[in-house]
Design brief:
By secondary structure, this protein is α/β, with parallel strands linked by helices. The chain contains 14 helices and 15 strands. A hairpin with a 3-residue loop joins strand 14 and strand 15. Helix 3 packs across helix 6, helix 7 crosses helix 13 and helix 10 packs across helix 11. The longest helix has 17 residues.
Length: 414
């Protein structure tokens, strides 16, 4: 169906910059997903000891000086790396872009825990004498830090802020960037999510106290959404930021276009701190499809949020059964089985992993499902090996978070 929306009101993705536990460029990341290569490894952190995590190995000094890395934050370095990579990938003539018309919108699960934990540990060696407390603490821990570090690094004088949306944040950053473009607040938006979570022992300790921290003798098999023997979350770091533009601007400069943001939605469960609400998750998916003027039969790939917790996966599957057609064409997959849960970056990384499907028609698999939980048996669930189809025109990307925040984006082929 030909879109009736004016080109100036259509938002497209023209650049992707990412770092993940199994790849630092989209092509490498995608190759790992198609080959079934996990990025989870053994990891050790203060007080918690040996555990498992998804760890990134990007070059912090590719776009930053050592001084900036020392003064800044891990989340900031991830954001700087991803933003620069995204702009380069977009093909924009950056030297001639009006930096006042560029906006930065970065989703976060949390920020400041890493720096605060590290600094308290440091002053514990000085009998908690606060006179040795670093003067970098405040700019490191303000919530807008990662987005602000990007503006400092890239000379951007347009708006910047972060969106605190728990594990729905990757989608939320993308949505916010699109909305600001539609409002005319910027002409180029960099949106998505980042996470430094593996560097705070509190995240690991918190999940462990809930009985929700994954363990397995083989790290690469630890993240196992939908598997009957799943035993929790693998905490990961990472980031993925997209360059967003209005379609008429992208078309005028002959930009490569990954896809169009056809629909999106966010809502709240209003029912529990942690346990998801399937009714509201299903409602969020329907709202996004309604905005896109689509039905579920139009969706080629549905990317699940499932984190490999015993109850969370089942709750999402209840919601998905309300949406999916038993004999429909929609394929269902999960990316956390490869990289673990990248928290604020999860939604944007998971979307990026599926974006190439709009060109190659291949749906990457969900790995590590050795014994499918009957309560997670879904129509179209793609396990073990990638599946080729006649063509994929639309991706629906789920991303949900604690305190009942839900986000869904729908990306279609242009």
């Amino acid at each position: 169906m030909i879109s009736q929306t004016p080109d100036s009101q259509r938002i497209v993705l023209t650049g992707v910059g990412l770092t993940s536990p199994n790849g630092n460029r989209l092509a490498d990341y995608r190759e790992a997903l198609l080959q079934g290569r996990s990025g989870v490894q053994e990891y050790e952190i203060r007080y918690v000891g040996k555990t498992l995590a998804g760890v990134c190995d990007f070059d912090e000094l590719k776009y930053q000086k050592r001084r900036a890395v020392r003064r800044g934050t891990r989340a900031g370095s991830i954001a700087v790396y991803c933003a620069n990579e995204s702009i380069i990938d977009s093909g924009l003539d950056w030297a001639n872009v009006d930096r006042e018309r560029v906006g930065i919108y970065i989703g976060l699960t949390e920020h400041g825990n890493v720096e605060t934990e590290n600094e308290i540990f440091e002053i514990s060696g000085y009998d908690y004498d606060t006179s040795v407390w670093t003067h970098h603490h405040n700019p490191r821990t303000v919530a807008n830090n990662p987005a602000g570090e990007v503006t400092l690094n890239m000379g951007i004088t347009g708006p910047h802020y972060t969106i605190g949306a728990a594990c729905a944040a990757g989608n939320a950053g993308l949505i916010q960037g699109a909305q600001q473009l539609l409002l005319g607040e910027c002409d180029v938006a960099i949106g998505g999510g980042v996470s430094e979570s593996i560097h705070t022992f509190g995240i690991f300790a918190g999940f462990a106290s809930q009985g929700a921290l994954a363990a397995h003798e083989d790290p690469t098999r630890a993240s196992r959404p939908f598997d009957r023997d799943r035993n929790g979350i693998v905490v990961s770091e990472g980031g993925c930021l997209f360059t967003l533009e209005r379609f008429d601007d992208a078309k005028a400069r002959g930009a490569k276009i990954y896809g169009e943001l056809a629909g999106y939605a966010m809502n709240s469960d209003a029912s529990d701190f942690v346990l998801p609400n399937p009714k509201q998750q299903a409602r969020c998916m329907r709202m996004a499809l309604e905005r896109a003027k689509m039905g579920i039969a139009d969706v080629g790939i549905l990317s699940t949020h499932a984190t490999a917790t015993s109850s969370g996966d089942i709750q999402e599957c209840i919601a998905l059964r309300e949406i999916l057609d038993r004999d429909g064409p929609t394929l269902v997959n999960n990316t956390k089985s490869f990289i673990g849960h990248a928290m604020g970056a999860a939604g944007s990384l998971e979307l990026a992993g599926n974006l190439p499907s709009l060109e190659d028609g291949v749906c990457h698999a969900t790995i590590n499902v050795e014994n499918l939980d009957p309560e997670c048996d879904l129509p179209g669930l793609t396990l073990h090996e990638p599946r080729e189809t006649k063509g994929i025109d639309t991706i629906l990307n789920n991303s949900f978070g604690m305190l009942g925040i839900n986000s869904v984006v729908v990306i279609k082929k242009v």
